[in-house]
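Interim report, section 4.2 (structural modelling).
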Amino acid sequence: MVLFKLICAVFITFFINIAQAQVPADEVLKSANGFVNFPSSITKMRMQVVRKGKVESEYLMNVKKLDSERMRIEFSLPIREKGRRILRVGGKMWMFLPDLGKPIVISARQSFLGSSFSNGDLLRTDLVLDYSASLLREEMLSGVAVQVLELKAKSVDVAYDRVLLWVDKTNKRPIRQEFFTLSGKRIKVMTLSSPLSFGKTTANSIMKVESDLNKDEYTVLTIVELSVNQKLPAALFQKDSFDR
Amino acid sequence: MICFRNFLILLSLTTLTSVAASAEDVAFEYRGYVESVFNSYAVNSDSKANPGNRLGLAADDSSLIIDFSFAAENGPFRLFVETYARASDEFQDQTAKPFQQYLSMTNEDQDWFFRVGKVVPNWGVGQIWNPVRALSNEGRKDLIFPNRAIEGVWLTQAQHILDAESSITFLYFPMLGDTSDAGVALRYSSALDEFDYAISAYGNSSGTRRAGLEMSWLLGPASVVSELTFSDFSEAEFIDSDGSLSARGNDQSVSFLLGSSVALPQELQLTVEYFHNSDGFSKKEFDTFTNFLPANLSLYNALGNGKDSFYAGLSRRFIKNASTLGFSTFYNVQSDVSLLRIYADTQLTDQLGASLAISRYLEPCCRSSVNLYNSTVDARLRWNF
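Predicted structure of the assembly:
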């Protein structure tokens, strides 16, 4: 009986320790998520694809986000992309081309218009929903004290199996992400910088993605405008509403 | 100043393309299109107008085509007009007709949507063919733009968004003179996990009954699409490619589509589709259509009645100027006609884009009655005003 109580005590202590270890990581992730995930928002974004230091292509788009599951992107520039729309509902994505006049289903892992971003990078921005976090280590990054979180995908729908996230220890702002495949190979690095206040919301206004597969290229995503607490009808985030 | 300069460019290019298109005895047939896309103008917080939603001028060997569209919105109401005017026979014959024009309305939650007017019902999941869209007459084909390839039909539409993945749409087609039948259509669209589907039914006063099924899903890196339609033409008349009417009799038919699109490494995109229609397609119809077939992919909808047709397209996207280079081929089994097409699309500035397509029809050997152009060249400029 004494042995049984001892075993129970060890197990209880073990699980309490695990729980205590997990809570901070989840809380850090939740705080960091607040800098990149904005429900009920409309964001005007510019995307530049840079090769050998020269901007090769540039896009201007309106990103409408209802919640963590529903997002719609509408392109306004360049002119040949005007009218192109992309919709995400849960793990599914569709693209609407005005010349085609109907939605076509697309994969989250596909490259986003030839950039270093995948469709999933832009359309799945809720890290809390997609990943479970654990605190890997603490270190200094460019003179800033950071916590490094290891994020593991909760489902196979998520574009990356494993993500490392560097978070500013003082304000919990995410400043760097590294993305890994199922085989453990790192494929891209995202640097988040230039925090700006848009009303009461602070966001990293510049996101730079460098692909390990192509060192000559990188993609910069800049937030031009961000409006939160927008009234967005749920019906707008439905593929049958695409042509309206 | 910039607007004036753009206007001069528009005028010059249109003149040039008209001159090029009217040249006779050339191995290539040229078609040119210059289009401006205007930004919408906000009247106030509730209203906006897009006075020149799109203004396009096109020219082929003997005609000039003018596209104009206009949109205005006030709260939940939207008015959209798209007009197509054409001067043909060396500009002696001039026609103008609306391609699409409708008034739409939605409620605050946008889950109810009503539309009255001349509309193209964009049903279906295939990129090249859509057997389920054959709800009514497909009208005359536009020569340049794929999404304007099909003239709208007069209808009243009511659509209700049920939830994030389901919707139901009802269409009513009024009887207009002697050339059309009154009809109704119903479509329910939904999803089973990763599997999207829609079922539809159509019937008209001439006895035509049609049932359709659309499906699309992801299979690894590939998206797969399929459409299946059962038709009972009964006493129904249908519109021939030359615009005349003929009776189908009581024959029943089935048509289906199977296609896939897959993203490959190096920004390559491969799209394949196979379309079967047991109604077949007469040689006259086919020749008439191919005579008017422009070098633009989706216009192969015009060949939608071909009994067995294949399509394969491979395109590559380039970072430089957001450009695309593509190659595609089309083959119709019954006519033994194939078509090869190379096209390029690029962004000259962020406000100005250009595309060029070269198509070559390959006719079966030794056939004397074909009426196909050897090759066509389509050029298109589009910019933001």
